[in-house]
Amino acid sequence: MSEPIELNDANFENEVLKADKPVVVDFWAPWCSPCKMVSPVVEELAADYAEKLKVGKLNVDENSKTASQFGIMSIPSILFFKEGKLVDQVIGAVPKSTLKERVDKIVG
Q1: Exposed/middle/buried for 42, CB within 10 Å: 0-12, 13-18, 19+?
Q2: What pLDDT does residue 1 have?
Q3: Which residues are catalytic?
Q4: DSSP 33-54
Q5: Backbone torsions φ then ψ of 97, nearest 5 degrees
Q6: Which residues of the chain have pLDDT under 70?
């Protein structure tokens, strides 16, 4: 079973932008209730797509540089990267089916 990677300002470029497979990044904060609702779904995606996808979580309170670089104004924000480029994003707590649909587009 694969766990989401803890991302930060220092490792974001290597782990996400230079990744050899698509990456889903959950921008969150510990005080955010909707983030807590989405977190188990993000963890399930990490397990379900372990072979095809990297999944990471970035705490916006501790990593404001990366959060502002991608214009994160609301959390949770889930960004989808392919070949180092932002290709999709979802803002707010959404059902697993919505995230799964977006993931299937980038790993397809």
Answers
A1: buried
A2: 54
A3: 32, 35
A4: HHHHHHHHHHHHHHHHTTTT-E
A5: -60, -40
A6: 1
Rg over alpha carbons for the chain, rounded to the nearest Å, is 12
CB 15 within 8 A of CB 65: no
Measured distance CA(38)–CA(26) in Å, rounded = 9
pLDDT, position 86: 97
Q: Distance between CA atoms of 98 and 2, rounded to whole angstroms?
A: 20
Give CA–CA dist 80/30, Å, rounded.
Answer: 21
CATH of the domain at 10: 3.40.30.10
Which distant-in-sequence residues (6+ apart) come within 8 Å of 27 by Cβ? 58, 60, 67, 70, 72, 75, 76, 77, 78, 79
Task: Report the domain count for the chain.
Answer: 1
**What is the rounded distance in angstroms from the CA atom of residue 49 to the CA atom of residue 31?**
28
- Tell me the residue range of the domain where 25 lies: 5-107
State how far the alpha carbon of 47 is from the alpha carbons of 15, 33, 37, 38, 69, in Å. 17, 23, 17, 15, 28
pLDDT at 3: 86
